[in-house]
UniProtKB/TrEMBL annotation:
<dbReference type="InterPro" id="IPR014030">
    <property type="entry name" value="Ketoacyl_synth_N"/>
</dbReference>
<dbReference type="GO" id="GO:0004312">
    <property type="term" value="F:fatty acid synthase activity"/>
</dbReference>
<dbReference type="GO" id="GO:0006633">
    <property type="term" value="P:fatty acid biosynthetic process"/>
</dbReference>
<dbReference type="Pfam" id="PF00109">
    <property type="entry name" value="ketoacyl-synt"/>
</dbReference>
<dbReference type="InterPro" id="IPR016039">
    <property type="entry name" value="Thiolase-like"/>
</dbReference>
<feature type="domain" description="Beta-ketoacyl synthase-like N-terminal">
    <location>
        <begin position="22"/>
        <end position="115"/>
    </location>
</feature>
<protein>
    <recommendedName>
        <fullName>Beta-ketoacyl synthase-like N-terminal domain-containing protein</fullName>
    </recommendedName>
</protein>
<dbReference type="InterPro" id="IPR050091">
    <property type="entry name" value="PKS_NRPS_Biosynth_Enz"/>
</dbReference>
C-alpha cells in the first residue's frame, strides 16, 4: 500500500523557541488530597502526622482482592458551584466528575498564583 503523502513535499511545522522575553509562568498550586480541603490543609495534616487513609467501607466494599483495604478518600466530591462556572443543569449533571475537579483546581491554581 502506497502512502498518498510525499515526505519531501509535505509541510513540516517548526516551533519557535521561547525566549525569556516571551516566557509566561503561572506559579500557583492546587490539588485534591485525602481528608484535606486544600494544599495548606494537606500540609498541616502531614506535619501533624494525621493518618489520611482508613479501612472504612463508606464508598467501596472490600469484596475484591485487587482493592486495598486502606484507602485515602477525598472530601466534598459532590459539591460543585455550577453557577460560578456558568454550567447549566444538564451539563453539570452529565459532566464527568474529573472535569469538575479540573475546572475547580485550575481556578484555584490561578488564584494561588495571584491572578485574580
Amino acid at each position: 500500500m502506497q502512502s498518498s503523502s510525499n515526505p519531501t513535499t509535505s509541510s513540516v511545522s517548526t516551533c519557535t523557541p521561547i525566549t525569556s522575553d516571551d516566557s509566561i509562568v503561572i506559579s500557583g498550586i492546587a490539588g485534591k488530597y485525602p481528608r484535606s480541603d486544600s494544599v495548606e490543609h494537606f500540609a498541616e495534616n502531614l506535619y501533624n502526622k494525621v493518618d489520611l487513609v482508613d479501612d472504612k467501607e463508606d464508598r467501596w466494599r472490600h469484596l475484591y482482592a485487587g482493592i486495598p483495604k486502606r484507602l485515602g478518600k477525598l472530601n466534598n466530591l459532590g459539591k460543585f458551584d455550577a453557577e460560578f462556572f456558568n454550567s447549566g443543569f444538564q451539563e453539570t449533571h452529565t459532566m464527568d466528575p474529573q472535569q469538575r475537579l479540573l475546572l475547580e483546581h485550575c481556578y484555584e491554581a490561578l488564584l494561588d498564583a495571584g491572578l485574580h
